[in-house]
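Record type: monomer structure entry
Structure origin: computed from sequence
Chain ID: A
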Amino acid sequence: QVQLVESGGGLVQPGGSLRLSCAASGSIFSTYNMGWYRQAPGKQRRLVAQITRGSITTYFYATSVKGRFTISRDYAKNTVYLQMNNLKPEDTAVYYCNARNTIAEYWGQGTQVTVSL
């Protein structure tokens, strides 16, 4: 079992920045690929960014966030981050942390990000 707790969401003006954090507990953090998804009202949940486990790290970013968002993980703190810069109104959504390996998948409870004047 893995428990995921997100934090760092909030209200920000267009062009602003936020950093989301996802603290993992309960299992071996290093065995999971970690990702951030988002879901806007009336839309499907979509992958925003992903970072793999292991000694060779690979990254995935949705086209809409490339160059603005950065995902990272701290193995010592069992935490994954999403640094979001130059935020746009269309980034408004609930952001979910995800942990996945070949055996299991877990989700956090979500944190709201609102980009508005």
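Annotation 1: The CA atoms of residues 33 and 52 lie 4 Å apart.
Annotation 2: The chain has a mean pLDDT of 95.
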